[in-house]
Amino acid sequence: MKKINFTWWRVSILLTLIGVLFVFVVFFMGISANRSGHILNKKHNAVWAGHELVKDYKSKKDVQDFVNNLSKHQIDTVFVHAGPIEKNGSINPRTYSYAISFLEYARQFNKDIKYQAWLGQVRGKIDLSDEKVRHNIARECMILGQFAGFDGIHFDIEPVYNDDENFIKVLKECRGLLPKDKKISVSLAAYIPDSFVKFVENIAKFDNVNSDKIYTDASKYADQIVVMTYDKGMDSAWMYARFVKEQTIMLSDLLEGKELFMGIPAYEDVKEGFDPKFENIENGLKGVIEGLNDIRSSEENFAGVAIYPYWEMTDEKWRIYDKLWLK
Asked: Rounded to an integer, what distance in angstroms lies between the CA atom of residue 74 and that of residue 42?
């Protein structure tokens, strides 16, 4: 009888276990570097700013102070609230009465900062299945981009569904009416991978998810994707930072060739599903930094962070932002 070489079998089993462990560490836990935020920061960050910038008159000095603050904090993309989308898809022009003068002043002080018209509405107030409504939204995009002078359009329509054909039709029609040099950006809810949805489908049902389909469908027409990594009901700083880390890893890998902004919260509203003690600028930035340091992320697809909202940023919050992200 042929003898079994038990030493060889032990070595084989050991090598197999090492291989399995390596795969687990790399693809599930990740191997991380320890680069600081100022190394990872590409100076391509964004903010959501209020409608008063374009609804009310701002003096040249007011605009200069605003632009200087953006420049100081390495922000070059601004989503300016240009008014809610009305029920019929139109936008009241009074909500951006002073857009032309604001943009003219702003570009005098820093021509590299881009301003997109932020269009938002809750889904219950607009029916995107109505073709006329979609046409009206697209027409407003053309007016804001070509005549009011915005550098693009930012959509924040909530909720967006995973198989949202009507929302995608809006993006497609808007893209067709805008010049190629005008960008479209889209805010989407936090990403849930298809693999996870399928894994738990027999255990739990989601009312709505933003999974692979909506992210990839939206990216066909949007140049920039902004993920809203807040209102997650996290009850610890570590948990929220870890959540943002995983979102950064997964989405930077999914959205090849697109500009990914990770939205982080600056507001203080204590409400169901949100606690600013945990979901805040500091923990959000820590999560982004940890995510970009992870070998699983695709850093080339990451653009920057997006602060929501600008008007909630205090001196202390800017200090934290600067310390973690700029210095």
From this structure: 9
